[in-house]
Specification:
Blueprint: H1 2-11, E1 18-22, H2 30-44, E2 48-55, H3 63-68, E3 78-80, H4 83-100, H5 104-121
Helix pairs in contact: 1-2, 4-5
């Protein structure tokens, strides 16, 4: 079942796709498997992750209670968990450094995060 899901999701991703994924109604291990598939697609299909989000649907109550609510009252916070992909990148960078002394990924990630701050503040950010 897991490999079929992996293959099914991967088949829908094409070279260079930007992926937006909502895990709100995912069942049990599906979000975990999807994160692995999306990371794999970044490596082999040059895909990018636009967003991974989760709507806190359970905040509304049971499915039976929600069904009775008018759609305009079914509003819940949406949590952006895309930063977990960045965490995977940092883990890969640390692994590269520890295994081979290669700091290139850590440097790239640092520049990706620092460049917008430096550009906006022209290097004069007291907190940076």
């Amino acid at each position: 079942m897991r490999w079929r899901l992996f293959d099914a999701v991967l088949q829908e991703i094409h070279e260079g796709d930007e992926i937006y994924f909502d895990i709100t109604h995912s069942f049990r291990s599906i979000p975990f498997i999807v994160l692995i598939v999306l990371n794999y697609a970044r490596l082999v299909k040059n895909a990018t992750i636009g967003k991974i989000v989760y709507g806190i649907f359970e905040q509304l109550g049971s499915p039976q209670e929600v069904e009775k609510m008018p759609p305009e009252q079914r509003l819940v916070p949406i949590v952006d968990v895309t930063n977990m992909v960045t965490l995977l990148d940092w883990m890969n960078g640390v692994d590269s450094f520890l295994r081979a002394g290669d700091t290139s990924l850590i440097l790239q990630l640092t520049m990706n995060q620092a460049s917008p701050i430096l550009e906006e503040t022209k290097g004069r950010d007291e907190e940076a």
